[in-house]
Write a structure and sequence with these properties.
The structure is a single chain. It is built from 3 helices and 10 strands; from the N terminus they run ββαβαβββαββββ. The chain is of the alpha/beta class. Strands 5-4-3-6-7-8 form a 6-stranded mixed β-sheet. It has a 4-stranded antiparallel β-sheet with strand order 1-2-10-9. α1 packs across α2. It is globular.
């Protein structure tokens, strides 16, 4: 892994390697392939942060599936704003479908709660959640996180799609605030 990375006014140190991320993604895909082998799920990718995870995950998913994207925002700087603004909506008819929400990180669960509420109104068959990172100390919602790569402490991380004010998403590894 690389050395310290400076983004704007903050320094970040290496935290999770590219290999660890890859292993976590493969673990998630294997679970999905096994559990949903008789289904044809729709992967609903939450942009912007989940783009890298979604690309890597779908390369490992071997069952028939579709992918769609939704964009929401709940972060400002290094903290969750507590509000969710839906920017780009879902255009597909998802009635009776299994939907897998693809998130880069599950932190407070505010974004997830909003998405699940919207999806339930659309009469989906079932909703699953897949995330690379889960912060169990921050997550206070009741929804099950079906597939996760790693649990991490309540630290601010960047890289592999995660950002600090829009920067750092392109890093191959995950870094933590130094």
């Amino acid at each position: 892994m690389s050395d310290l990375v400076t983004i704007k006014d903050k320094q970040f140190k290496p935290y999770i390697s590219q290999q660890q991320i890859s292993e976590a993604v493969k673990k998630i895909a294997t679970s999905i392939n096994n559990e949903l082998k008789n289904d044809q799920p729709l992967f609903l990718v939450v942009l912007n942060g989940s783009f890298m995870f979604a690309a890597d995950l779908l390369k490992e998913v071997s069952i028939p599936c579709e992918i769609s994207f939704i964009k929401v925002a709940s972060y400002h700087g290094t903290t969750s704003s507590g509000t969710v603004t839906e920017l780009i909506g879902l255009s597909e008819d998802i009635t009776g479908r299994t939907v897998i929400i693809v998130e880069d990180i599950v932190d407070t669960g505010i974004t997830l709660e909003k998405l699940i509420t919207v999806l339930k109104r659309k009469n989906v068959k079932q909703i699953k959640v897949a995330t690379v990172l889960l912060k169990p100390d921050s997550y206070k919602k009741e929804f099950t996180i079906d597939y996760y790569g790693m649990k991490i402490p309540n630290d601010f991380v960047i890289g592999y799609g995660l950002d600090y004010d829009g920067l750092g998403r392109n890093l191959k590894e995950i870094y933590v605030l130094a």
